[in-house]
Amino acid sequence: MTNNKKVLQFIDESAALCQPDKIVWIDGSKEQIENLRAEACSTGEMIRLNEDLLPECFLHRTAVNDVARVEDRTFICCKNKEDAGPINNWMDPAAAYKMAGEIFKGAMKGRTMYVIPYSMGIVGSEFAKCGIELTDSIYVVLNMTIMTRVGKNVLEAMGENGDFVKGLHARADIDESKRYILHFPEDNTIWSVNSGYGGNVLLGKKCFALRIASYLGKNEGWMAEHMLILGFEKPDGEVKYIAAAFPSACGKTNLAMLIPPESYRKKGYKIWCVGDDIAWIRVGADGRLWAMNPENGFFGVAPGTNAKSNPNALESTKKGTIFTNVVHNLENNTVWWEGLDKNPPKDAIDWKGNPWTEKEQAEGVKGAHPNSRFTAPARNCPCISKEFDNPKGVPLSAIVFGGRRAKTAPLVYQSKDWNNGVFVGSIMASETTAAATGAVGVVRRDPMAMRPFAGYHMGDYFKHWIEMGKKVKNQPKIFNVNWFRLDDDGKFLWPGFGENMRVLEWIIKRCEGEVDAVETPIGYVPKAEDINLDGTDVTKETLEEILTVDKETWAKEAEGIEEFYKQFGDRLPAELSKELSDLKARLK
Ligand code: GTP
Ligand code: SPV
Ligand code: MN
């Protein structure tokens, strides 16, 4: 399908290593996809769901030991250990190739190696980048055809000499002790072995579009961020764009597809989804920051998705979707998960493949894995932005950071300026979720929601943010939000989901200089009367409580930040040390 020697060489070398029985090129055609679906169903790898209720939809169950990203087995393999920084795991590239080479050796014997040419961004467009993923998993092939732009035209766009990110994936034995997700930013290469789960194996996503791309962005003067992108349409039809970085399973998909409360809809407000997970951001000729979504689908968290919390996401999953680790509803051959509705099917199979009947349900056995997911085509989304296919992306008015904090962080606050905003992003902390293996609910620092995804030294990454700010004439305003404040009984104080529109409205008004704010040591918070509560049951007292910035709590927070910053040594930008000492002074 191509004369590109680099592509052919990559395939030859990988085939020599993995020794597949055959090699199949993925051309992106409907016919080929349908054949692969049929093959996966014949082996039990996938289950075809009800063609009337969920046309072209499938269910897949991963191995029980393989349900989330594995951060402790994810490595940045660059020549100098220093360059990976204190947060990433590091391996020497030569040692990593040798060690993993032993695991890949013969790993595809008796299997097929699929060659997936894909593009992150519109095929052939200025800011798009190509990748080739070699994999022995049909599940990966089918997911990639939803999540990225796959096909012959990618090879054409690459031409005889074009570069690409080399991705090699083998399921091997799904052996946790030999599972490795290896990134070689200096050779544009990703190796993933012994997993068959999402972020570990859909190499265009976290591995390429964040870890490798963040490294490319630093060198080439752009940014790859773990951000949703949304359009905020006002009643007069003007659309303002916001990008927001929240850690995994902290609300990006939900915010990106938000349906405004009825009173807003009546006035003509709308939210448009440009992307729900990743943004590639550049300085435009107009001196503004422009963000584009390099993906083509949503790999969304299933549990909690329902007709009330996120109807647009639910609608997106009605066609051409792959469900992973959810409940198989045998009553009508559809799917179910916790939080879909209050009627779990009585005749069902749980995510592990075990019967899940009233008995198991009464015993409290969960039907779907907490990190179960849907892979849905972006074009299915009823609120997909008309700019989704615009290769340049959209100009940003605001950047929003946010995390899951039971206490401490107020509902929303605005930074003082760009550098202070970079500081606000760098000190983000959030409770861990089921999106990665390990303990859940532990507060950890997750700067810009990129802790697991920056492909180089986090101190240098902060520096890159500071430098980018200097290149932007019309800087977006930078905010922080927290939908997850809890009361003493552990209940959410803020209703969240669609009601977050009220906070977005304040953010846009601040960008346009239409509303005043209260200055606090950490930044500007809304006056309580400026957050519209009409039509909610949130009282003014509750709102005041979640807007409070408690000096004592924040003084402790500042100590935690100081501790966190220490590990970056002299690679912490001076601008951020200054921001921290200024904050401490304001808290005195
Ligand atoms: P990744 O795909 O892992 O990057 O996650 P994400 O950031 O896109 O998170 P998502 O929108 O899928 O939400 C994750 C979980 O948070 C779901 O269980 C949601 O129900 C819940 N959630 C999202 N938004 C809100 C909110 O405003 N309030 C509350 N309380 N929960 C929310
Ligand atoms: C995340 O964990 O942030 C995800 C899911 O978006 S995964 O693709 O597994 O990384
Ligand atoms: Mn994500």
Corresponding CATH architecture of the largest domain: Alpha-Beta Complex
CATH topology of the largest domain: Phosphoenolpyruvate Carboxykinase, domain 3
CATH top level of the largest domain is Alpha Beta
| Secondary structural class | alpha/beta
Termini Cα gap: 66 Å
User: Tell me about the biggest sheet?
Assistant: 9 strands, mixed
Q: What fraction, in percent, of the residue positions are helical?
A: 25-40%
**Counted beta strands:** 30
Query: Overall pLDDT, averaged?
Result: 97
Number of domains: 3
Q: Which of globular, elongated, flat, extended, rod-shaped describes the shape?
A: globular
Low-confidence stretches: none
Ligand set: guanosine-5'-triphosphate, sulfopyruvate, manganese (II) ion
Count of discrete alpha- or pi-helical segments spanning 4 or more residues: 18
Radius of gyration: 23 Å
Structure description:
The chain is globular, with a radius of gyration of 23 Å. The chain has 18 helices and 30 strands. Strand 29 and strand 30 (523-525) form a beta hairpin. Helix 13 packs antiparallel against helix 14 (458-471), helix 13 (418-426) packs across helix 18 and helix 17 (551-566) packs antiparallel against helix 18. The termini are far apart. The strands form six sheets. Strands 1, 4, 5, 6, 7, 8, 9, 10 and 11 form a nine-stranded mixed beta sheet that branches. Strands 12, 13, 14, 15, 16, 17, 24, 25 and 28 form a nine-stranded mixed beta sheet that branches. The protein folds into three domains: 5-46 and 70-220, Phosphoenolpyruvate Carboxykinase, domain 1; 225-293 and 388-587, Phosphoenolpyruvate Carboxykinase, domain 3; 298-380, Phosphoenolpyruvate Carboxykinase, domain 2. The protein is of the alpha/beta class and 588 residues long. Bound molecules: guanosine-5'-triphosphate, sulfopyruvate (SPV) and manganese (II) ion. The site of manganese (II) ion (MN) has 3 residues, from loops. Its EC number is 4.1.1.32. InterPro entries: PEP_carboxykin_GTP_CS, PEP_carboxykinase_C, PEP_carboxykinase_GTP, PEP_carboxykinase_GTP_C, PEP_carboxykinase_GTP_N, PEP_carboxykinase_N.
